[in-house]
């Protein structure tokens, strides 16, 4: 008889055992530079968010102890939803317990006979959301509009069609081709869902995300997002036309059957929204750091393309080498993310570096120095003098317009 537990190997354990490197589930080292978290604006430790969370906890308690629909709705959730709808330029918004659940809820829109078209590099939560829905699923090659067009053209004309994509991709930091996606959605009568987990709060003149970055307000039919990145909190969101948000409010099982976002998280997210709306200098600062990292790493001989954003992917290649590089950086006091197979295709392992608005210039220098030293030791890049003979092109970052 087969034991089902014996059939569950951990995908990266082989490489971890061979290299003796274990970069996952590590607690942060107090003296290391944290260069691998998604708190791009540095708000998770902002005293204003901490105050708001403390006050809300004192007033409402530590937990809502139930789902939004029955007993878990607070004035804080309602205020957050109204503020988000205005900020994102949507008719309505719904806040969820996590961003993962917001994406799972997207699957609720897919009924029998419908068709979903997903970018192959979408976040796991969006993949699972589509998987939970009914109908047919198609995956188009990452950012490949020609491939998507062929799939849309081949779908049954009367199928309800949903195109789903990350706005800013979480591992390589590149942006979805929004203008082309909108054009295809219009041509084939599809609706466009964008997960703005990494770009809401960061991109665009007001920080409202990828549609604003492309100067295309209203281009997204349904937005999902999270408060665990730019908002320094925990929770998720869905925003779009009122009739669809209401439909999800009453039909999406990840919303209906899960306890509401905690009072502390909701209050922190509201305060973060105040800061995002009034302190564009934070976005300016994080893009300054990103530009320095991209250009500094490229000058050293590392490949950071195609990202143009504060998710800086440093391409290493083999998973084992990536784990060794992660360990070397860790020993040098810099905490990064090792992204290896199966999270990326074989041979495409990378170190993911993410600056924060609250990093100092010295900390960015420390990150670059660590990459230089570790990269040379592992033979990933040549020495500085040799490297100076090579050509490298500074990254022209497509920075968001941060004013007006
Ligand atoms: C692109 C993307 N979508 C959704 C999520 C899920 O968000 P949350 O952490 O709120 O569950 C994440 C977080 O890892 C993400 O990177």
UniProtKB/TrEMBL annotation:
<dbReference type="InterPro" id="IPR050087">
    <property type="entry name" value="AON_synthase_class-II"/>
</dbReference>
<keyword id="KW-0032">Aminotransferase</keyword>
<dbReference type="InterPro" id="IPR015421">
    <property type="entry name" value="PyrdxlP-dep_Trfase_major"/>
</dbReference>
<dbReference type="Pfam" id="PF00155">
    <property type="entry name" value="Aminotran_1_2"/>
</dbReference>
<dbReference type="GO" id="GO:0030170">
    <property type="term" value="F:pyridoxal phosphate binding"/>
</dbReference>
<keyword id="KW-0808">Transferase</keyword>
<dbReference type="InterPro" id="IPR004839">
    <property type="entry name" value="Aminotransferase_I/II_large"/>
</dbReference>
<protein>
    <recommendedName>
        <fullName>8-amino-7-oxononanoate synthase</fullName>
        <ecNumber>2.3.1.47</ecNumber>
    </recommendedName>
</protein>
<dbReference type="GO" id="GO:0008710">
    <property type="term" value="F:8-amino-7-oxononanoate synthase activity"/>
</dbReference>
<dbReference type="GO" id="GO:0008483">
    <property type="term" value="F:transaminase activity"/>
</dbReference>
<dbReference type="InterPro" id="IPR015424">
    <property type="entry name" value="PyrdxlP-dep_Trfase"/>
</dbReference>
<dbReference type="InterPro" id="IPR015422">
    <property type="entry name" value="PyrdxlP-dep_Trfase_small"/>
</dbReference>
<feature type="domain" description="Aminotransferase class I/classII large">
    <location>
        <begin position="37"/>
        <end position="371"/>
    </location>
</feature>
């Amino acid at each position: 008889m087969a034991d089902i537990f014996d059939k569950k190997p951990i995908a990266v354990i082989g490489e971890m055992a061979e290299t003796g490197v274990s970069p996952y589930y590590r607690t942060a080292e107090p003296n290391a530079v944290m260069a691998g978290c998604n708190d791009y604006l540095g708000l998770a430790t902002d005293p204003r968010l901490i105050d708001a969370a403390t006050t809300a906890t004192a007033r409402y308690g530590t937990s809502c102890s139930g789902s939004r629909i029955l007993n878990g709705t607070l004035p804080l959730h309602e205020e957050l939803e109204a503020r988000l709808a205005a900020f994102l330029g949507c008719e309505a918004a719904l806040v969820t317990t996590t961003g993962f659940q917001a994406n799972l809820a997207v699957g609720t829109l897919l009924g029998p006979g419908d068709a979903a078209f997903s970018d192959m590099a979408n976040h796991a939560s969006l993949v699972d959301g589509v998987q939970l829905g009914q109908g047919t699923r198609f995956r188009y090659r990452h950012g490949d509009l020609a491939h998507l067009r062929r799939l849309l053209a081949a779908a049954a004309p009367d199928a309800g069609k949903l195109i789903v994509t990350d706005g800013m991709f979480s591992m390589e930091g590149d942006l979805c081709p929004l203008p082309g996606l909108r054009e295809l959605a219009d041509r084939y009568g599809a609706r466009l869902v964008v997960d703005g987990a990494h770009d809401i709060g960061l991109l665009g003149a007001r920080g409202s995300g990828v549609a604003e970055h492309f100067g295309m307000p209203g281009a997204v039919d349904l937005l999902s997002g999270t408060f665990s990145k730019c908002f320094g909190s925990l929770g998720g969101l869905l925003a779009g036309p009122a009739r669809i948000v209401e439909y999800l409010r009453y039909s999406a099982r990840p919303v209906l059957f899960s306890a509401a976002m905690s009072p502390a998280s909701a209050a922190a997210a509201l305060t973060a929204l105040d800061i995002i709306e009034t302190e564009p200098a934070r976005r300016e600062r994080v893009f300054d750091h990103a530009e320095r990292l991209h250009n500094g790493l490229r000058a050293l001989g590392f490949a950071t393309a195609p990202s143009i954003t504060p998710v800086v992917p440093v391409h290493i290649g083999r998973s084992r080498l990536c784990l060794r590089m992660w360990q070397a950086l860790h020993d040098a006091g810099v905490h990064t993310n090792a992204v290896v197979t199966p999270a990326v295709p074989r041979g495409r392992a990378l170190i993911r570096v993410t600056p924060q608005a609250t990093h100092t210039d010295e900390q960015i220098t420390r990150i670059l120095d660590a990459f230089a030293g570790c990269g040379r030791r592992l033979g990933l890049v040549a020495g500085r003098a040799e490297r100076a003979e090579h050509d490298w092109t500074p990254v022209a970052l497509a920075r968001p317009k941060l004013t007006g």
